[in-house]
Amino acid sequence: MSTDGAFVALTSGEWAEVKLLSIGEVDAQKRKAEEEREVHTINLSYFARLEEASVFSDQASAEIRRRGIERAPAVCAVQDGAIWLQEVVQAHRHDALRILDFAHAAEYLSEIGEAARVRGWHLPAHWLQGVLHRLKHDGPDRVLEHIAWLCKRMNDPEVSKKEHYLSKRREQMRYPAFREAGWPIGSGMVESGNKVVMQARLKGAGMRWERKNVNPMLALRMALCNHRWQENWQQQWSQQQSMRELQRWQHQQQRVLQRQEHKKEMRALVAPPPPLPVPIEPKKILKGRTEAQKRWGRQTFSPRLLHQG
Fold this sequence. Notes:
Layout: E1 2-9, E2 15-26, H1 28-32, E3 41-49, H2 53-59, H3 61-67, E4 76-79, H4 83-92, E5 97-100, H5 102-118, H6 127-138, H7 141-154, H8 157-168, H9 175-181, H10 188-202, H11 211-225, H12 229-270, H13 291-296, H14 303-308
Parallel strand pairs: 4-5
Antiparallel strand pairs: 1-2, 2-3
Helix pairs in contact: 5-6, 5-8, 7-8, 10-11, 11-12
């Protein structure tokens, strides 16, 4: 697996980085041939997005699982030493063999040599070729020792940063061991992927893109370059059908709720008003004789007779 970024022009006038992941397999037949010195990769597939590094890493999980990176017995990651590239590898296959792209290391060594010549240091005409030959066939130890000696005498902070960058990635520059194990030491598959997937379509003469249109175009390019055009269109058609059915069901449910609400409103309009409360009249206190007094006289018993008795 190999990851890199390339810039595309936007209509806003800025340049945005499109990140690309390339996944391939080492050609075992050519690897076993003794006369074959270069390692070839086959069955390449790509994933590209205009996103932040963390979002891109999450979105690339589908293609990584489809290609079986998590189940592969051995994986190498050939790329430059950018931190976000290493985080992508760490997130999906932390035990992958990290290999610093040989061309990227050569670029740093060339810049150090040019800085030395600018400051008046005399270097042999074929100094860079000799350093790269030793790095490729003997490993990084003596090369880094020589570069550290050179940078120490130049005493230039910028050159020292480049030397520190290479020294931190010493284990990623064991190119003789990598070649012996049959791994590639160059990130050509992702460099060519940038040209095939993104630059061939998005970086034409005078092209400027709206940011919202970049990812849809990249999705179409990946379907074409990964030879999954028909499969992707079938998936899109199935998803659209599912969305239509879901929208139709939601519309039906909404209509049912509207009918129920309408019925409630109609019942509220047709129903008779509740009866008014009947006022409670106060109990009348009757004056005069009672019914018993009317029948038997004013007094039924004489208090005086009762007292005498």
